[in-house]
Amino acid sequence: MTAIAVTIAGSDSGGGAGIQADLKTFSALNVYGATVITALTAQNTRGVQGILDVPPEFIAQQMDSVFSDLSVGAVKIGMLSQPAVIETVAAGLDRHQMSNVVLDPVMVAASGDRLLAPEAIDTLRRILIPKALLVTPNLPEAAALLDEPIARDETEMRRQGELILALGARAVLVKGGHADGAESVDILVSASGVQRFPAPRIDTRNTHGTGCTLSSAIAAGLAKGMGLGDAVAAAKAYISEAIRASHSLEIGQGHGPVHHFHAWWS
After folding, report:
1. Which one, of 110, 54, 45, 112, lies nearest residue 80 by Cα?
2. Active site residue 175
3. Would you call 76 a catalytic residue per the annotation?
4. Residue 260 in 3-state DSSP?
5. Which residue, 17, 197, 223, 250, could crosslink 186 as a Cys pair with Cβ 3.0–4.6 Å?
6. Is 38 annotated in the active site?
7. b/e per residue 120-150 (b: at least 16 CB within 10 A)
8. Which one is catalytic: 24, 76, 131, 175?
9. For residue 73, which of 219, 204, 181, 259 has the smallest C-alpha distance?
């Protein structure tokens, strides 16, 4: 059977993040990708110039169309900018009994532009996190979810992961890309314990779409039947190589994208 994953997220007109990054990742990892678009952005490597939210009722219609027809193995959720959108997506997940849900709590773009309304953070905590198999916050996102300072070391990352786990998720991957040091370490916290996923830190400004790509790579692994730990490990290896190869792309004048098809393009 063909592995299928669905991304529920915003569109990035520059092609480096959001829906576009998710579909590239699914394709690179041999998974068929379908979409539910929650917002349109006017965006490039230098920033976000505009956001147009999709009406919640049309988001629900997209979800019903996709999930009623396709045998979906995993769902990745990205940009949900407003409380009503979060509530609509949560209701759709319940309606179609989706369980392999990877929630990337997208709040700010790589350029620094805000993508999530401040009043939506509480809705995300209360309604959507409890429906997630995995939540994948970076350090600023984990801090915002908990209304705490940004974690300064792996001990604090683990503690914040445990606090987010207590909100109802089955697992939390706290990503260390915003930290310092020779390694970029992600910490996976679940009821069964803690796993550490290190990789050499790569000095590059081509970081646009890294979070989207990692979470969609995890969803791709889940759609293919991998266990969570194996899916995270495979996704970490994929994003590390995509970042490493990003220097071969010449895209835009700001934070360039990672190289999703590094294994195929010469």
Report:
1. 54
2. yes
3. no
4. coil
5. 197
6. no
7. bbebbbebbbebbbbbbbbbebbbbbbeeeb
8. 175
9. 219
